[in-house]
């Protein structure tokens, strides 16, 4: 089974803070993400800075695009992003127009998806979804469980590359053992640590333990 | 019937371009919106600039927030926004946490809403929704019609302040005659004109014609 990617979600309030963390942990991860919070704060400059810092890494733009798909995708692409998220409740027309500009479109799953819609996404060529435990849902006490894993597996069986995110830490990686996860996305579990580089390496080691 | 507000959606790719248009048309409108595209491009600086330019206007931050409600709301508020959008597919927990920080939360209606969810929004104190013809849906040939007006009226009857947006122009305002629309949001119908100030004034005159 292919080793899942490790993606760091940079959701700092300032580009300076994000760059500090990226400078430390960026070399160790596979994908560097400009999180929505950071992008709303610092704009596309955040993508440009990370693109220049990591010319050989995959850069993700977490716009959660809901409309004006081609414009938002073009802007993300121009700034240097390889991947861009769209929200599940966006229309198919929006997703299609985003996909026409930037190939690496990922649908972020909140509360507006079902299996029929997922088939529609596939029909327009979308290959990636992000299964998402909402930060606020986690704060409200929801946790990763069998229900989540079953959903992830079903998306994988449909042929999607599935990224998982939301409240992941070193201890939760093993819950996914045996599941061909495409990418683990970790935010504060890495960025909130004293030594983000060491924590990122711990994540990579833990992932390698189960996906050799 | 109260005159609906006129809101200009600034969705330029650069803050310079948005500021140019705002300088011309801003004094005439009731609400100045930092559109999603602009905010993703220029970051919160866009809100700060428009807040300083128009200290007495309502400033809207069109984040279409899907997660991390309180952080995104705090950032919008700190930059000077009075209103902030959340996406319909956000969880109730996310909406609630946004609302706890910034009172003027508006739910933007894409494809993830129904009347039951709308009642839940009301239960947590949300008073505003934005009924939205997607730009991409409009490009795909969908237009304003009775179906849309019926939805707007039902939201109004429930007690919501309803903003309408998507492909509005001078000629479509009259379609809403008799409906207590809270706000008309116009983007390129104003920003794309040679004389944005004159067009904004034409909008205001047209609105006054039907909502005296």
UniProtKB/TrEMBL annotation, chains A, B:
Superkingdom field: Bacteria
GO-annotated biological processes: 'de novo' pyrimidine nucleobase biosynthetic process; L-ascorbic acid catabolic process; one-carbon metabolic process
InterPro entries: Aldolase_TIM, HPS/KGPDC, OMPdeCOase_dom, RibuloseP-bd_barrel
KW Lyase (keyword) present: yes
Metabolic or biological pathway, per its Swiss-Prot or TrEMBL entry: One-carbon metabolism; formaldehyde assimilation via RuMP pathway; D-fructose 6-phosphate from D-ribulose 5-phosphate and formaldehyde: step 1/2
EC number per UniProt: 4.1.2.43
Signal peptide: none
CDD domains: KGPDC_HPS (cd04726)
Keyword terms, alphabetized: Carbohydrate metabolism, Lyase, One-carbon metabolism
Domain Orotidine 5'-phosphate decarboxylase: residue ranges: 5-203
Short name of one Pfam family: OMPdecase
Enzymatic reactions: D-ribulose 5-phosphate + formaldehyde = D-arabino-hex-3-ulose 6-phosphate
MF terms (GO), sorted A to Z: 3-dehydro-L-gulonate-6-phosphate decarboxylase activity; hexulose-6-phosphate synthase activity; orotidine-5'-phosphate decarboxylase activity
Family recorded in the similarity comment: Belongs to the HPS/KGPDC family. HPS subfamily.
Full protein name: 3-hexulose-6-phosphate synthase
Organism the protein comes from: Leuconostoc suionicum
């Amino acid at each position: 089974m292919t080793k899942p990617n490790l993606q760091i979600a940079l959701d700092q309030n300032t580009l300076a803070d994000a760059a500090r963390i990226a400078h430390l942990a960026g070399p160790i991860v596979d994908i560097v993400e400009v999180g929505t919070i950071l992008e709303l704060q610092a704009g596309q400059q955040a993508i440009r800075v990370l693109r220049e810092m990591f010319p050989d890494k995959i850069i993700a733009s977490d716009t959660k695009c809901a409309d004006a798909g081609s414009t938002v995708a073009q802007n993300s692409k121009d700034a240097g992003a390889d991947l861009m998220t769209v929200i599940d409740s966006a229309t198919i027309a929006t997703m299609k127009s985003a996909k026409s500009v930037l190939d690496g479109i990922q649908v972020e799953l909140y509360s507006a998806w079902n299996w029929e819609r997922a088939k529609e996404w596939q029909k327009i060529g979308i290959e990636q979804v992000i299964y998402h435990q909402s930060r606020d849902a986690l704060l409200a006490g929801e946790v990763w469980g069998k229900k989540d894993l079953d959903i992830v597996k079903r998306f994988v069986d449909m042929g999607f590359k599935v990224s998982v995110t939301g409240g992941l830490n070193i201890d939760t990686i093993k819950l996914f053992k045996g599941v061909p996860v495409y990418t683990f996305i970790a935010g504060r579990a890495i960025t909130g640590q004293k030594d983000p580089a060491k924590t990122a390496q711990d994540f990579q080691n833990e992932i390698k333990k189960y996906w050799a």
